[in-house]
Protein 1
Amino acid sequence: MRVLVDGDRGYIGAVLVPYFQAAGHDVVGLDVGWYDGCDFGPPVSGYEQRTGDIRDVRPQDLEGFDAVVHLAAISNDPLGHLNPGSTYDVNAHGAVHMARTAKAAGVPRFLFSSSCSLYGAGGDGKVAEDGAFHPVTPYGESKVMAERGISPLADDTFSPSYLRNATAYGSSPRLRADIVVNNLTGTAFTRGEVRLQSDGSPWRPLVHVEDISRAFLAVLEAPRESVHDQAFNVGRDEDVVQIRTIAEQVSEITGAPVSFAPGAGPDTRDYQVDFAKIGEVLPTFEPRWTVPAGIHEIWEHANERGLIAADFEGERFVRLRRIEALAASGRLDLSTLRLHGEGAVTS
Ligand SMILES: NC(=O)c1ccc[n+]([C@@H]2O[C@H](COP(=O)([O-])OP(=O)(O)OC[C@H]3O[C@@H](n4cnc5c(N)ncnc54)[C@H](O)[C@@H]3O)[C@@H](O)[C@H]2O)c1
């Protein structure tokens, strides 16, 4: 299939694109390039990379594709808080614009990268795909708005699917330090301690970035009727764990002791998710990774690639720091989250 992947130059995209290519698909990327140069090892190359903002995409940009994989977003809570209005603009209105444009261009499939954070404060039980939405942040709200905006577009010619990913972990050529397993492991490597930012009690569903890619591939290749206007929680039941358990695993594997950051308190983002549906509907989706294996992977890559604290805690790997640095240097307008001088999509 010929697939347009937007957000291809981010953390998940840099793993998903080679994974799709290895499965025989022809990939074209589209990304505004906020994290260009923020590399962890050799950058991904060998495919057409277009530069542009999803909010400016026109039908002629999407003609001839069999599917759009929509990853581009303000990708976490701290970034979302920076400017909630722009977060809705990119993550909700931008996502709906991409879906509408894909449909107008005759693209039959649309895979939306949603998030388990739309369930928010989920209460005591495990929440399945038909569970209520209680997002507690603008980022979570933006994913709810996007799904609700895209779903009415579904018809005989257009099949959107919503992949509600758990919190990702694992190595990527565009590593992120601001997600929990990566953060704890990288800090163990660079600082010699497993430093918790909360009291460690919240539950978090986790999934390896390569298993996310596996889920997208399974949806892409599934018969249309099994994924048409369907949501899937993407993760593994075994990997719904308390943050303190992750800290203990990192400590055990790396030998670094656990410590608490000053002011570490409770975290309201506490939810447990039911991952049964994806395995039942998509039997080709077989997650391969475990959290301990992911900790080993990051540790080994940190060693091979010489990870240092200044990089791990700075703009190279922390999305918020990078956006703040782009704004401070005058390259990005924080009120609109637009790069200066950026125009229509270019090859
Ligand atoms: N990483 C996770 O733990 C996780 C979990 C659940 C859902 N998700 C979702 O998966 C997607 C990818 O996440 P990620 O971790 O790779 O994020 P990321 O921040 O590493 O990458 C996002 C990419 O999108 C690009 N982008 C942002 N706004 C754009 C715009 N307006 N036009 C064009 N490109 C734009 C950025 O330049 C970047 O390359 C996001 O939608 C995110 O919300 C991620």
Protein 2
Amino acid sequence: MQQITRDVYAETNVRGANVGFVVTGEGVVLIDSPMIPPEARWWREQIAEVADQEIIYLINTDHHRGHVLGNQYLTTAVITHEAAWKEMKSYGDSFRQRLINRFIKDDEPEVAAEFENLKIILPCVTFTNRMTLYKGGKTIRLIHVGGHTAASSLVHVVEDGVLFTGDVVVKGRHPFIGHGNSKDWLNALTFIRKLRVKTIVPGHGEVCDRETLQMLSEYIRQMRAQVRKLYLAGRSKTETGSRVDLFNFFPIPDKDRQRTRKRFKASVGRVYEEMKTSYGASPEAKKRK
Ligand SMILES: [Zn+2]
């Protein structure tokens, strides 16, 4: 666990996504929860060691399982964007079964067994644009930006100059655009650049600063440009998926290559759909007319 300021902590070595918390004078506010049950229980102990206070809120920066599955071990006082609540509402038995199957396939039967007891803790408070928590001398701003998902929101701990970005910022790995919107994402990064923050806790990767934003914007801009060109040249979505040349923009460990490739193609596919919306039917379809 990393102490970022006197009252703000982050952990970048749990699976699923980075997590953090803020010790206010009146309880602890959490940002995201570790996905793997033993790690979520370990996290609860870490928090208790640092803060002799109750957990009062848990903010999920989006609805992806890497951010929300550990909620049940921490608190029921969950806050998310309204769109995340809508998604999480649909996490039923088939969602749980897919999760169990994935961990069995990955040869982690003990994790799979833990998920037999999965309880999805739905948010009890949602917001649509912005919301501010004033607690124990801290101002914690929740700011909806979208981009990575329609729900993606930032958590700005104003007095400490710390920004938790969820997956809107990831360091040293491909951003996942497969459920998002690349144009909104670029706007979100521009917005973050204007905020007065000293430290950024990204959704994945090490704690970072503004330089990481630059690289990420560059990646998304390049992806948009390449997909646009291929789309306008009449390439199909599948062809575009294999032609976009950005897979080596970030180093990928061998064991993650297959999964990353799949997610990369999903991102390209999503951007391709955006181009369709911007430019109308594909050039081939127009030819057929
Ligand atoms: Zn996410």
Protein 3
Amino acid sequence: MRAFVLRSVSESAEVELAEVPKPEPGPEQLLVKNQYAALNWADTQIRRGLYGNLPNLPVVMGAEFAGVVERTGPGVTEFCAGDRVAAIGQHYCGGFAEYATVPQERAIRLPEAVSTTQGAAFPVTALTAYHLLFSAFSLRPEHSILIHAIGGALGSALIQLAKDVGTRVLGTTYSPHKIPLAKEAGADLVIDRSQADFVQEATAATNGSGVDLIIDSLGGDTLWRSFDALASFGTLINLGEAEGWPQGEVRKLRDVLHSRSAAFRCYDLEAAEPGSARWRKGVDYILERLADGRLKVTIAKEFAFQDCVDMFHALESRQFLGKLLLKIP
Ligand SMILES: NC(=O)c1ccc[n+]([C@@H]2O[C@H](COP(=O)([O-])OP(=O)(O)OC[C@H]3O[C@@H](n4cnc5c(N)ncnc54)[C@H](OP(=O)(O)O)[C@@H]3O)[C@@H](O)[C@H]2O)c1
């Protein structure tokens, strides 16, 4: 069969059209006769050798594809020959070929209403958009969101899902010609990073408070700067490095968290803004439970006023379980 193969990685490396053996479906795999495959930014990073998890070479490129199941391997229970499917290839590879094998759990049966072209184009970006907004965050209408590279494929999926929730959507692009497209898709404000400072613009657009969620696929210095545009209790999710790997400690932190989509967040009680609606919600929640006994604060020891110094030492001694109280005359 014909396939586009990558044999080496570098800025100048290119995929080559080659004749390669038609793959055989192994246990729990499908053999798909591909009809469409879509390109992702990750493919370009693999080609250039910049991807975090490079596949073994040579490799048939193409992370996502759609077509018809031609044959199933032993143990396939979910699909049969003739099913129209979309898929994300194992190791993000295999799609730029006439046939691909894929583990059944990475295949998605396409309903009649979803065309094969849409099927090939949605898996990576649309599912990523979904998980960013609803698994890594719990997007609600009252949130504001800032999407870097908003004019790209992922940006478009994010805009549509976020607007469907009713969220205010801001974004940035370094390519001004992408602004109309992002606005057409529903973005409320698109900042041209080639002309304006996105931190200032995003802060001004949110009356100084910053945005609740930032989706950063750029990395580099933009990742660092993005923290300055976050609101109190805001969340920044980094999922890419189109502008280059972030440097220093932030790179180490990113590498620890990345494969688990885990988060590191900071906390300061003052960020709950005493007197604000968020603050009062917390106060009401706690008072209700203190009043009906669902919450009790353990008092470990009461100290006489003059024993204030002892109270300090008591806490430092690690001997007490609960709060230490000073009785004030
Ligand atoms: N971690 C994951 O699982 C995961 C999954 C899906 C996507 N992603 C990441 O999400 C991002 C978007 O993916 P996509 O496939 O939808 O791509 P895309 O957004 O359609 O294209 C990449 C964007 O990166 C920006 N960019 C920055 N530096 C660039 C450069 N030197 N050359 C070209 N473009 C540059 C461009 O936006 P401007 O023109 O506006 O600057 C471009 O639109 C990528 O960084 C990708 O790696 C990660």
